[in-house]
Amino acid sequence: MILSHLALPVTRVMPNGVSLYHLQGEDKGVVRLDILFSGGYSVQHKPLQALFTNRMLREGSEGYSGAEISRRLDYYGAWIDMYSSQGCNHIILYVLAKHFPLLLPVVEDFVKRPLFPQENLDVVRRNNKAHFLINSQKVDVVAQRHFERTLWGESHPLGRLVESGDYDAITRDDLRQYFDEVYSNKNCTLFLSGTQNKAVVDAIVSAFGNMEWGAADKVSVHMAPPSPQPGKQKIVLENTLQSAVKVGCLALPSTHPDFFDLRFLNVLLGGYFGSRLMSNIREENGYTYDIISEIDAYGKDNVFVVSSQAATEYVEPLLEELYKEMERLQTEEIPAEEVELVRNYIMGELCREYEGSMAKSEVFVNAWLSGDGFDSVNRYIDAIKLVTPQKLQLVARKYLQRDKMFEIVVGA
């Protein structure tokens, strides 16, 4: 399957210095606008500060109550998502292009002038805490939390486990402090995809690109180096029917020459339904219903992780078969037919992921967050075409060694 290079975003620097990246693609009458603020929870002063600040923006502003904001979004058929990661606070707006200039002033107001109403904060805090307590009884969620703590260490922003008391401790003053330190034109980046007519672009420039706004200076995200804990842990969670398994390690940075080959190898090992782990551990042995390996991005860092759930009696044999498959990749040359199969699978998935400018937005936003540059997307396409069995075996020997893996099991 042939996949050509993607057209890179067109950069426009607006009068106040905010970068607006235009993603080229078909016009279907819908706009997607990504509003990003560097920082995330890597620069917060206490747990949940970034998440609650970003989430609470839409709960009321100087010009609109939280109820009015919700009514306007519903009236115009808009959808909005708000989340925080280790390096970024992210707002995504989808709306019909004809409604975009009418709705954007509402978004502008709650992004620039939120009030963080105490009553709304109490409701959001209570709901999020209840959700946290429910998830704390799920083996896969607990395994993910402990896996991250093991990888990064308890003192690292990515390794500190959130506790139920953190929800009670977050205050309106915390949100205002974080907002003042992060949200401003100096720390804002925009991605525009979908319809990009003059009315849409003029509305964006008017709302976010003409004047200075916000008190924050440019935020620099500097993560402390990880300090991993001992790599093999069993966490007991009573009254569970299955155990969750997480096995992995810190992976290569995406700028490393071997990174794209490692991504390819990850798919072959456990990244699609016909992978080696699925064929062995699910189809042949029946130890689990699902097992998957992934390379997850944490800002500029990457993590290799294999995830599964199994009955307690199958956990140890599952782990042994997992390590056998890793060893096979190191000691046995991968058949050329299998490499070609995986190559075609990845190309097909990329064609699907890159269909339309809105789908590409996720790809280029992630490239921006990782600091790799937009051309890394096309370098990955080139690398897939050049992968060989010999290169994959060398990569397996370097990076898929059993003694480098952290292992977390959560269950009864």
Overview of the structural elements:
With 412 residues, the chain is of the alpha+beta class. It has 2 domains: 200 residues, Metalloenzyme, LuxS/M16 peptidase-like (Cytochrome Bc1 Complex, Chain A, domain 1); 180 residues, Cytochrome Bc1 Complex, Chain A, domain 1 (2-Layer Sandwich), CATH 3.30.830. Helix content is 45%, strand content 18%. The protein is built from 15 helices and 11 strands. Strand 9 and strand 10 form a beta hairpin. Helix 1 crosses helix 7, helix 3 packs parallel to helix 8 and helix 11 crosses helix 15. The longest helix is centred in the N-terminal third of the chain and has 18 residues. It is globular. The N and C termini lie far apart (46 Å). The model has no long low-confidence stretch (mean pLDDT 92).
Main traits of this protein?
412 residues; alpha+beta; Cytochrome Bc1 Complex, Chain A, domain 1; 5-stranded mixed beta sheet; 18% strand
The SSE string, one letter per element, is EEEHHEEHHHHHEHEEHHEEHHHHHE
Percent in strands: 15-25%
- Determine the number of helices (DSSP H or I, runs of at least 4 residues): 15
Look at the structure and give the CATH class of the largest domain: Alpha Beta
CATH topology of the largest domain: Cytochrome Bc1 Complex, Chain A, domain 1
C-alpha geometry: globular
Extract low-pLDDT stretches: none
> What is the number of strand segments?
11
Radius of gyration: 23 Å
In this structure, how is the largest beta sheet organized?
Answer: 6 strands, mixed
Overall mean pLDDT score? 92
Q: Estimate the helix proportion, in percent.
A: 40-55%
